[in-house]
């Protein structure tokens, strides 16, 4: 498609503290449907996460490096304003379970009220990641549990750095055993 004004751009917003393979699954699938996907990291000065915004962006950039039509940015304030700035027509959110629905419904309804021209599309998370969240990953990693396969390798490494055990590890019967 030569006419760039007809490019279908979508925004994948989130906290990404840190990005998980569940997020990545949604980003990859969105990238196969839209011409371009902008991953938008919310920069909320009132909520300090485990990782700084710069670290989150760095990990995301490395994780989506294989996707030629995905870029990463950050935003403060309203998501719909960021979507407009990106020229996006769609906001993509992943839905894991019914428990996600209420929050997502409120958010999509408010975004629609603020910007009726921007649609929210929901994608069902792949079954293998249905239980996965950044919070669960952080908790498991903080207690020395194995998060291999749940997050991109760069995130696994960063979590190990954050939580101190620079040691090499091995997996036995689903448990992480320090060598
Ligand atoms: O990964 P998360 O924490 O579920 O992502 C939530 C996020 C960043 C998408 C949401 O908090 C957001 O869009 N915040 C920006 C503020 C905003 O636009 N509020 C109006 C809609 S409720």
* Low-pLDDT sequence parts: 168-179
How does the overall form come out from the CA principal axes? globular
CATH class: Alpha Beta
- How much beta, percentage-wise? 15-25%
C-alpha end-to-end distance = 53 Å
CATH architecture: 3-Layer(aba) Sandwich
Count of the domains: 1
Q: What ions, cofactors and ligands are bound?
A: 4'-phosphopantetheine
Name the helix and strand elements from N-terminus to C-terminus, one letter apiece. EHEHEHEHEHHEE
Q: How large is the count of helical segments?
A: 6
Helix content: 25-40%
Output mean pLDDT: 91
Radius of gyration: 17 Å
The largest sheet, given as strand count, sense and whether it forms a barrel, is: 5 strands, parallel
Spatially, the strands of the biggest sheet line up as 3-2-1-4-5
Quick recap:
By secondary structure, this protein is of the alpha/beta class. The chain contains six helices and seven strands; from the N terminus they run E-H-E-H-E-H-E-H-E-H-H-E-E.
Structure characterization notes:
This protein has 179 residues and is α/β, with parallel strands linked by helices. Helices cover 37% and strands 22% of the residues. It has 6 helices and 7 strands; from the N terminus they run βαβαβαβαβααββ. The longest helix is centred in the middle third of the chain and has 17 residues. The chain is globular, with a radius of gyration of 17 Å. The termini are far apart. The site of 4'-phosphopantetheine (PNS) has 9 residues, from strand 1 and helix 4.
């Amino acid at each position: 498609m030569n006419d760039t004004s007809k490019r279908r751009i979508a925004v994948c917003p989130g906290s990404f503290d840190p990005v998980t393979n569940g997020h990545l699954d949604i980003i990859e699938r969105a990238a196969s449907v839209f011409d371009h996907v902008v991953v938008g990291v919310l920069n909320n000065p009132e909520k300090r996460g485990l990782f700084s915004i710069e670290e989150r962006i760095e990990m995301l950039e490395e994780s989506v490096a294989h996707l030629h039509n995905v870029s990463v940015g950050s935003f403060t304030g309203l998501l719909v304003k960021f979507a407009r700035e990106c020229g996006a027509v769609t906001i993509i959110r992943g839905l894991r379970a019914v428990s996600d629905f209420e929050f997502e419904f409120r958010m999509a309804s408010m975004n629609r009220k603020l910007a009726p021209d921007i649609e929210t599309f929901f994608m069902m998370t792949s079954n293998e990641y249905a239980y996965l969240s950044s919070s669960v990953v952080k908790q498991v990693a903080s207690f020395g549990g194995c998060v291999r396969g749940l997050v991109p390798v760069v995130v696994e490494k960063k979590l190990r750095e954050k939580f101190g055990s620079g040691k090499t590890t091995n997996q036995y019967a689903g448990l992480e055993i320090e060598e």
